[in-house]
Amino acid sequence: MHSETKIKALIELLDDPDEFVFSQVEQELKLIGNDIVPILEYAWGNSFNNILQQRIENLIHQIQFERVLKDLTQWKNSQGRDLLDGALIIARYQYPDLDIGEMERFFEQLVKEVWLELNPNYTALEKARIISRVLFEIYGFSGNKKNFHSPQNSFINHVIESKKGNPITLSLIYLIIAKELKLPIYGVNLPEHFVLAYTILPEDFVDEFLQEDVLFYINPFNGGTVFNEEEIKTFLAQLKIEEEDSFFLPCSNLKVIERILNNLIFCFGKAGVMDKVEELKQLLHIIKS
After folding, report:
1. E strands along 167-259, which residues?
2. Nearest by Cα to 63 from 36, 98, 94, 25
3. Of 92, 139, 145, 253, which residue is least crowded by CB atoms under 10 Å?
4. Where is the Protein SirB1 N-terminal domain positioned along the sequence (predicted)?
């Protein structure tokens, strides 16, 4: 256990010109883990040494990134693979100080508002329309068509704040509501798009899906419009993409998080932020391994 005095002494050595000394100090501080971040931030704020500040910034980022790697690994190996938990881990990559409790309270309120309008006797279509009305009319969520390729569209906290997202994050919010209300709605991993399938199956169904299990599809990026299998075929034909069963059938929560990471890799790559691309590829490797 390091004393605060020793930690402060180690931090002061971070600007040592000897690379070996710096490397040893950095490794020792990294081993302390996330608990050291507030001390590092305080040291950064009270320093006028540019080299020390830069090294502290890099160290904080490394510590926080290691935590995201660890949490995503645990999430992947967990039994439930809760979608909100997975999305919040990805959001913490960009926003390490994210208030998880605030996000959870937002969803509790959102789910409650949908639940108050639902009736057990409603048809599947009526239930879907209730979710869409609350999400897109009352809360004002919509697809970010102006800045479609902005990386911010893939971070759940930013989407909640701005009320604008891409197909995957808007679908994600819809899926979290459906999960809490035990409605059999699942993601569908389309090329260049992401939609939802309302099925006849029990909630949390895990065996193999069949096309006849799907009642209809929902497009959250377009305000929750409902469509059918033929429209997916038309969409694929327009893209000149050969049909595959997976383009019509529900996918796992693992695939949803994988799709978010792929979106982020593409968007940061398009923006030329290659250091983030490389780190996000590490996160994607965890999901795919």
Report:
1. 185-188, 195-199, 214-219, 225-227
2. 36
3. 145
4. 107-262
**Looking at the structure, do residues 31 and 130 belong to the same domain, yes or no?**
no
Question: Each residue's pLDDT tens digit in the chain (289 positions)?
Answer: 456 777 777 777 777 777 777 778 788 788 887 778 888 888 777 777 787 788 888 888 999 999 999 999 999 999 889 999 999 999 999 999 999 999 999 999 999 999 999 998 999 999 999 999 999 999 999 999 999 999 999 999 999 999 999 999 999 999 999 999 999 999 999 999 999 999 998 766 666 788 889 999 999 999 999 999 999 999 999 999 999 999 999 999 999 999 999 999 999 999 999 999 999 999 999 999 9
CB 238 within 8 A of CB 218: no
DSSP-derived 3-state class of residue 186: strand
Q: Tell me if 117 sits within 8 A of 137, measured CB to CB.
A: no
Residue range(s) defining the domain that contains residue 111: 83-288
**Domain total of the chain:** 2
| Alpha-carbon dihedral sign for residues 198, 202, 205, 209 | negative
In a domain, 42, yes or no: yes
pTM of the model: 0.89
For helices 83-94 and 100-117, give the axis angle rounded to 10 degrees.
140
| Tokens matching residue 30 | 């990294």
Same domain, 87 and 134: yes
User: Cα dist. 196→152, 201, 225, 255 in Å?
Assistant: 22, 14, 10, 13
